[in-house]
Amino acid sequence: MPTRLTNYFLKTLREDPSDAEVTSHRLLVRAGYIRRQAPGIFAWLPLGLRVKSKIEAIVRDEMTNAGAHEVHFPALLPKEPYEVTGRYVDYGDGMFRLNDRRGVGYVLAPTHEEVFTLLVKDLYSSYKDLPLSIYQIQDKYRDEARPRAGLLRGREFTMKDAYSFDYTDAGLDASYQAQRDAYERIFTRLGLEYVIVKADAGAMGGSKSEEFLHPTPVGEDTFVRSAGGYAANVEAFTTLVPDARPSEGLPAATVFDSPHTPTIQTLVDLANAEQPRDDGRAWVAGDTLKNVVLAVTQLDGTRELVVVGMPGDRDVDLKRAEVAFQPAEVEAANEDDFALHPGLVKGYIGPWSEGGAAVLGEKGSTGIRYLLDPRVVDGTEWITGANLHEKHVFGLVAGRDFVGDGWVEAANVKDGDPAPDGSGPIETARGMEIGHVFQLGRKYAEALGLKVLDENGKLVTVTMGSYGIGVTRILAIIAELNNDDKGLIWPAAVAPFDVYVVATGRDETVYAAAEQIVLDLEAAGNEVLFDDRPKVSPGVKFGDAELIGVPKIVIVGRGVADGVVEVWDRKSGDRSEAAVDAVVAAL
Amino acid sequence: MPTRLTNYFLKTLREDPSDAEVTSHRLLVRAGYIRRQAPGIFAWLPLGLRVKSKIEAIVRDEMTNAGAHEVHFPALLPKEPYEVTGRYVDYGDGMFRLNDRRGVGYVLAPTHEEVFTLLVKDLYSSYKDLPLSIYQIQDKYRDEARPRAGLLRGREFTMKDAYSFDYTDAGLDASYQAQRDAYERIFTRLGLEYVIVKADAGAMGGSKSEEFLHPTPVGEDTFVRSAGGYAANVEAFTTLVPDARPSEGLPAATVFDSPHTPTIQTLVDLANAEQPRDDGRAWVAGDTLKNVVLAVTQLDGTRELVVVGMPGDRDVDLKRAEVAFQPAEVEAANEDDFALHPGLVKGYIGPWSEGGAAVLGEKGSTGIRYLLDPRVVDGTEWITGANLHEKHVFGLVAGRDFVGDGWVEAANVKDGDPAPDGSGPIETARGMEIGHVFQLGRKYAEALGLKVLDENGKLVTVTMGSYGIGVTRILAIIAELNNDDKGLIWPAAVAPFDVYVVATGRDETVYAAAEQIVLDLEAAGNEVLFDDRPKVSPGVKFGDAELIGVPKIVIVGRGVADGVVEVWDRKSGDRSEAAVDAVVAAL
User: Does the domain made of A254-407 have the CATH classification 3.90.960.10?
Assistant: First the structure.
């Protein structure tokens, strides 16, 4: 039975939705694929649901090929398991919480590690039951602070989440690899370019994690890669630590007046003017040690100041800092913080004071923790604050004149930084997350008591992986990548229909002929959307066809009386005539 | 790729779950189809999900045949639309409610009339866009007071809910009929016997409603039907009202002493002993007028007493009373209620007092509303309470001696009662609701402002229907109907697999031969579950096969060396030999 526009649920819109920030959102709403219900929450209209189902079918297929079996959990789950693992607290405001009529606490699950763990614990008890990989395609909820960009970051989204269960580390490696391979096949079938990068495991915990990023300048994630094959999410990038140097023979540090040096550059200029280097090389920003005061707020609300010392040509990258301090929140210290800590001489903060007493760092007088960038190795010399108003110090040597209380990866990453694996300089790029695989290890199994008997009858804790693909996000990215100024252009693998047949004019015989073509196309296995609207102008019909973006369009007009129709390729825009009885073959 | 039990996610259980009240729940848990997460909330394991998907596919197919298009709404929705229609309050504790991080109120949708109405309002504005039927298959949430019977009444459940939109009453009739016809086809394909009964529209509002009930003695709904074709849910049954009779010439009412008449029967016995009828017929319970005091609590908490007068051979049916007083809650009055109303002489309540003053009914002295059963028509004579301790009255005539403040359908329905359409006596039976179709009319469209321009350019309010099938409930009912003491016996249309192949023994060549049979069966289009577990006894394997209930079982044992396997029909229990190369044909 043909799907006819005269009774299909579809209304294309001439105007962009006022809240659309990105192309995919704008076009998916205008072309009648989705409709907003609340911030970050959408209804799926018939066209959108068809595309979503096709993506899900590809994901299902490759999950089956990876040996994973499908299950399905509710979105509404008891809060207890999330309390046991700590995520009930860790998720903060990002989790939707509610009580039932008896006052029992529930959550709308943001992800399902806990209940998958408990399900396997509930049913399995022996190593013989493992390995096991199970997955679901399910609607998840996260109360994002700023839901935005349409489906790219919603508060409800459809996700494929898979979980693997093994009792050996080698087993976990194999399960992880099987999912990783499936992800590569899925993205290839979807025509989505991807980069696999080392990632931070974040709130998930666990030992190893990789992200699949689609590289695009408009991506919200930054990643780095080297020509030698290193790739990492910028949050997971680790600094290549230089070798320590001997400090013997280095001159003693000297304090100098440095008024009017509000920036690193003014400080460097002053240094070059007043203390030129013996070898004639100019001082540069990287020769200074910048001391940045951060406020670190734990989930329980306690706020701690931390000073981070890093080369002056770096800035704090708050996302990297948040990973370093997770699950705490990190921000720059404010005026109140400084007022409470008069020992911090704003603009002139350093680890050391004249006379050699530590102001920051081990046993420092301020009591504030002082963490160092990994590049500040023993024996390096620095121009830095002297903890006195309008004074800095030259030649302060790490390890000799000051030590930190530890190391921290909080500085930004720059093009040209060396990859930690020695594979050469990295460059940064932008990407959108399209998949994430985690070796969770035993974190969840330990917290929830998932153990099995091994070959020797000994109880061992299970080791797990978790593997996520954002189905609705991928749909939005495909829309983001495949469009022009006329509308969407779906790749055949996920198009809502294979062919879009447009009948034009007012001649009923044309519509009858078009319907026969639709039936022939359907008989040949095509999914067809038939624009049979009798009183709509060809211009409007063609505009809708372009906006909706079915890859192949067949125009049936008066020429059909002579056995001729027009075949239109949405992507190339090519239009050519075809004989009616050759249309099926032509497509 | 064969689905092998060695890596499938399945664990059959020997013990019944402790909370299982019904067979379907017990077997679906034991056979590894579902697993409880919280009261009335279940996870779907691979076998269960397959059965559920098959039911959904049949529903989808018939929705398409009925011209309905699929959409999908979130479960999490803003509360405002439900406030506008009043259902936010009407649902009482039955609705899950929550706030987001900004304090904005949301609900987990129990059903989606409001947002479907708004969606159509959002996109459509002309009669030319109608009729429209759209549906979804979606997980719904209701905070049932007593979730029970496994999937039969859960707090989360999957439902197909369709909505039709028309601008004429005739259009609504046609849309309603199309869904009703689709339901008949769906239940026929699922092999589910059904009765279509008139139903009460309940909290949905609207003008006409029918329920599809599966007749079964364990059903939780009572319905009535006549041989002449009348069928109604007991809540929707209406009494055939007898004609009024002349009261001229009837003797005056007389009061008599009636101590020790705590029950209707003792009162009838006393009447027969002390006041025998002139014609010699004995007084029966139906000659007495029983006055029952009900407490009716509105949603805002106000509690009102109401007295219902009905023939003494009837009892109050609280479900029918709740329909009569909806959305209020109804219960029997308690001691406190009586204490507050000393005008009600417990055990001797009647509408009338000696001397002719009305105690109940129009301008009665108690101020309490007095409603009458429809059978208490003018001219009927009654034995009833005299509103004096230990006194009753004979020959009290309705219309002459007392009137009510209105009529109410609160009495129970009994076998032999006449059908309201004159089609003869009804009988009561039990059934389970499997579908419900509503003509909502303009209630939702009016509340939410859904209007379209008609042919004359005039704005008209749209008229709607809503049509629900409980997918997970149907699955449970099918399981409830198709089982024996060994386990489940799925009908082929919804079985998780078509064939279950069991390899027995320890001979690897048997397993290899079995695998080839599995591949041949799959190549012939069968879905096959392969029990390839090498170290499990045949007895356990056969027990699992019976418990899981795939309709056809193939046993591959040592005989395969001679080219013979066994084919086992799960339902009949018949086992017969078949040649290996004839297995595909044999099935």
Answer: yes
Residue with tokens 């399981």: B479
Q: Which fold has domain B49-75+109-237+428-479?
A: BirA Bifunctional Protein; domain 2 (3.30.930)
Q: What is the pLDDT of residues A91-135, one digit of tens each?
A: 889 999 999 999 999 999 999 999 999 999 999 999 999 999 999
Q: Which residues pair with A197 in a beta bridge?
A: A211
Give the closest residue to A472 by CA, choosing from A179, A48, A109, A123.
Answer: A48
Quote the tokens at residue B581.
């190369």
Chain B, nearest residue to A61 by Cα: B1
> Which residue carries 């003869």 as its tokens?
B424
Candidates 2.60.40.2000, 3.40.50.620, 3.40.50.800, 2.60.120.10; CATH matching A497-586: 3.40.50.800
Measured between CB atoms, which of B46, B67, B122 is closest to A70?
B46
In this structure, which amino acid lies at residue B483?
Answer: N
Positions in chain B short of pLDDT 50: none
What chain B residue is nearest to A11 in terms of C-alpha separation?
B123
| CA nearest to B131 within chain A | A7
Whether residue A80 has pLDDT greater than 80:
yes
Does residue B215 sit at the A interface (CB-CB below 8 Å)? no
**ipTM of this predicted complex?**
0.86
Q: What is the DSSP letter of A506?
A: S
Contacts of B355 (CB under 8 A, 6+ apart): none
Within 433-492 of A, beta carbons closer than 8 Å to B belong to: none
Tokens 């409001």 -> residue: B114
- Transcribe A56-80 into DSSP letters: HHHHHHHHHHTT-EE-B--SEEESH
Packing angle between helix B471-481 and helix B46-65, nearest 10 degrees? 110
- CB contact B9 to A (< 8 Å): yes
Are the CB atoms for A522 and A460 separated by under 8 Å?
no
pLDDT exceeds cutoff 90 at A356: no
Tokens standing for A221?
């994630």
Residue A203 predicted with pLDDT over 60: no
| 8 Å CB contact between A76 and B96 | yes
β-sheet bridge partners, residue B391: B257, B388
B515 class by beta-carbon count within 10 Å (0-12 exposed, 13-18 middle, 19+ buried): middle
